[in-house]
Design goal:
The chain is an alpha+beta fold. It folds into two domains: 5-227, Rhodopsin 7-helix transmembrane proteins (Rhopdopsin 7-helix transmembrane proteins, Up-down Bundle); 237-403, Alpha-Beta Plaits, CATH 3.30.70. Helices cover 63% and strands 9% of the residues. It has helices at 5-29, 34-53, 61-87, 96-113, 120-139, 147-173, 180-183, 190-227, 237-254, 268-275, 277-294, 318-333, 362-378; strands at 258-265, 300-303, 308-314, 337-338, 343-344, 348-354, 384-387, 400-403. The strands form two sheets. It has a six-stranded mixed β-sheet, with helices on both faces. Strands 4-5 form a two-stranded antiparallel sheet. α1 runs parallel beside α8 and α2 runs antiparallel to α8. The chain starts with a helix and ends with a strand.
């Protein structure tokens, strides 16, 4: 016989050790890549599953069938979480699905220990569902850089689902996996061994996809590092220029609104002089985090100077931009910034402008936002000003409207 059950499992475990070991080393050296950490957990749990399955007929059924089945379910949950972090980049918003999974695991274990027949259906159902959910997550990808690896991931998941559909009737109606005696004839079934070999090949493809996602994540992390301000974690000047040029072109092409906020922290130098640069760094980061919490997901925030920030507000008119600016101003004024030296309170001045149609380029918009910011400072700081004149100048303009904060 060309295929041998024990030989297949020995080869599968041996290759699994190599892949899981390599992934574990990468996960230890790059703990910030959460998707890879989930994939590594899936690989390690899957390796344990395969090692236990190879003991069928040697160890008790609880260890050779029940525990591997539980490991298989948990492994595919880790696969789903890995794809979720790679594409959505945020954790589950609810504990509902983990609770459902825990109930499923408990139900399967209870039925298996009670001797209930065809418990395989209870173990394969969550795996099927997790594969389908993983495909749905991958289809939500919007990053062109991830398009190829996402397609590879979907292909491997579909192949796994196909093999599940082929093998499940054999398990349910031909072989009873609850007893090693009834399951033993499967080891001599050429079709069963062939599909088993296919499953092992698909498992190897999963490892390739995991490592491919790791490479994509590393590239994304490096791109983000180049575009990110190290002190605050928001975008830097270079990234803002790229985003601004893109948004201006989009606003001109689609004739949609685009507003810009120029933000400056009032009297920030006094924080550094009084409490030290460490306190100043903490204050900068807290202000940036507070502003991020007050704007929408599609808005763009960047640090463009020492204590200066710029915010792009796509598809936002002047009235809405004023409301956002005032919300930022009031939230920063109410913020308690705790540093090692003292609790610091800061205010901001905000200048607003909009894209004024064809011919209005980003440099002109940026200058108008600076003019509006200059007016806010001249008005006494801790306030918002608007400049809508194309012919900007450092002197007061008839198109400048000042919105003073209540004193």
């Amino acid at each position: 016989m060309l295929l041998n059950y024990q030989t297949l499992f020995i080869c599968d475990v041996a290759t699994g050790v190599v892949y899981a070991g390599a992934m574990s080393i990468l996960a230890l050296h790059h703990p910030q890549l959460r998707a890879h950490r989930w994939f590594t957990a899936a690989a390690l749990i899957g390796l344990l599953r395969n090692a236990l399955l190879g003991t069928l007929g040697t160890l008790p059924l609880v260890l050779s069938i029940l525990l591997p089945s539980l490991c298989n379910i948990v492994s595919f949950f880790c696969v789903y979480m890995g794809f979720r972090w790679a594409i959505v980049r945020r954790p589950l918003q609810s504990r509902f699905w983990p609770t459902v999974l825990a109930v499923e695991l408990l139900t399967f274990a209870t039925l298996f220990l009670s001797g209930f027949s065809h418990t395989f259906a209870f173990s394969i159902t969550p795996i099927f569902a997790l594969c389908v959910l993983s495909i749905q997550i991958l289809r939500r990808n919007q990053d062109p850089e991830m398009r190829t690896v996402v397609r590879a991931g979907i292909t491997v998941l579909v192949a796994h689902l196909t093999l599940i559909a082929i093998r499940t009737p054999m398990v349910l109606f031909r072989y009873d996996v609850n007893t090693s005696g009834h399951f033993r004839p499967a080891r001599q079934d050429p079709f069963w061994l062939a599909t088993l070999a296919c499953m092992m090949f698909v498992s190897a493809c999963f490892f390739v996809v995991y490592l491919w996602f790791f490479e994509r994540e590393m590239n994304r992390a490096l791109r983000l590092q180049v575009r990110t301000d190290a002190r605050t974690g928001v975008l830097n000047v270079r990234a803002m220029e790229d985003e601004a040029e893109r948004e201006v072109l989009r606003a001109a092409r689609k004739r949609t609104a685009l507003s810009v906020l120029a933000v400056d922290i009032d009297f920030f130098k006094q924080v550094n002089d009084t409490h030290g640069h460490a306190a100043g760094d903490i204050a900068l980061k807290k202000v940036a985090e507070q502003m991020l919490s007050q704007i929408r997901g599609g808005d763009v925030l960047a640090r463009t100077g020492g204590e200066e920030f710029t915010i792009l507000l796509p598809e936002t008119g002047l009235t809405a931009a004023q409301e956002i600016a005032e919300r930022l101003r009031s939230s920063i004024a109410a913020l308690d910034i705790v540093t090692e030296a003292a609790v610091v309170h800061l205010t901001i001045s905000v200048g607003i402008t909009m894209h004024l149609g064809n011919g209005d380029a980003w440099p002109l918009m940026h200058r108008r936002a600076d003019v509006a910011l200059y007016r806010a400072k001249r008005a006494g700081r801790n306030c918002v000003a608007v400049c809508m004149e194309k012919n900007w100048a450092p002197t007061p303009l008839p198109g400048v409207v000042e919105i003073r904060a209540e004193r």
